[in-house]
């Protein structure tokens, strides 16, 4: 069985100067580039929203970024417009190696957000990643990238729930930390059986 590296959303909008900048988000780039050499299979995800996406505060009247709204699938944080398909903000950080096996785009349906690389935020609609990993004989995953408390967390918890052996290397992740979301994410990942490491 193989071990894959999954690199979550290392895109310009999540790096300093971007629309939804994660503090020090760009620091993960050199570290991830080096890590890639140690894995037979490397996958990258790309947050990839249409303009006017329902997770954008600008798509709701009288709402500001970081407020919560009720969506048909549950509570959703509203974000500044970010990672709009085809824009420079949606592009990978220019120094990130992108010579991996697969680039998976997510969040491309207007009505539903997708933090996890496995399921959209209704926690039901699959992205197809599970089937890809299983058909390639991958049982072990190391997950890194941005943001620790949102897309890394949701991806890691879903992967563990699906039965993969999951490690998150926190030294190659950076978080947003909205109202304690970073500590809550560490707790959720640990509770799901994700191994958290600092290398
Ligand atoms: C993310 C918020 C909105 C992430 C994506 O990559 O963690 N966070 N869209
Ligand atoms: Zn997004």
Strand-helix topology:
Blueprint: E1 2-8, H1 28-35, E2 41-47, E3 68-71, E4 74-77, E5 102-106, H2 129-135, E6 138-146, H3 148-161, E7 165-174, H4 181-191, E8 195-197
Helix pairs in contact: 3-4
The structure holds pyrazine-2-carboxylic acid and zinc ion (ZN).
Pyrazine-2-carboxylic acid binds next to helix 3.
Overall morphology: globular
Major β-sheet annotation: 6 strands, parallel
H and E order: EHEEEEHEHEHE
Strand segment count? 8
Give me the Rg, rounded: 16 Å
Give the strand line-up of the largest sheet: 5-2-1-6-7-8
Portion of residues in beta strands equals 15-25%
Terminal CA distance: 23 Å
Decide which structural class fits the backbone. Answer: alpha/beta
Task: For the structure shown, list the relevant keywords.
binds zinc ion, alpha/beta, two-stranded antiparallel ribbon, 20% helix, 6-stranded parallel β-sheet, binds pyrazine-2-carboxylic acid, globular, 8 strands, 199 residues
């Amino acid at each position: 069985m193989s071990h894959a590296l999954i690199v979550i959303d290392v895109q310009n909008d999540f790096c300093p100067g971007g629309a939804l900048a994660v503090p020090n988000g760009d620091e993960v780039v050199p570290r991830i580039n080096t890590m890639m050499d140690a894995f037979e299979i490397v996958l990258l995800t790309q947050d990839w929203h249409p303009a006017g996406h329902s997770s954008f505060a600008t798509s709701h009247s009288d709402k500001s970024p970081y407020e919560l709204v009720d969506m048909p699938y549950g509570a959703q944080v509203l974000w500044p417009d970010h990672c709009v398909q085809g824009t420079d903000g949606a592009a990978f950080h220019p120094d990130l190696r992108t010579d991996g096996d697969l680039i998976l785009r997510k969040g491309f349906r207007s009505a539903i957000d997708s933090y996890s690389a496995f399921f959209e935020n209704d926690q039901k609609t699959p992205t197809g990643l599970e089937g890809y990993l299983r058909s390639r004989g991958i049982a072990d995953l190391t997950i890194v990238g941005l943001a620790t408390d949102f897309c890394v967390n949701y991806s890691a918890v879903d992967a563990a729930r699906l039965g993969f052996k999951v490690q998150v290397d926190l030294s190659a992740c950076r978080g947003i930390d909205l109202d304690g979301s970073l500590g809550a994410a560490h707790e959720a990942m640990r509770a799901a059986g994700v191994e958290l490491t600092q290398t």
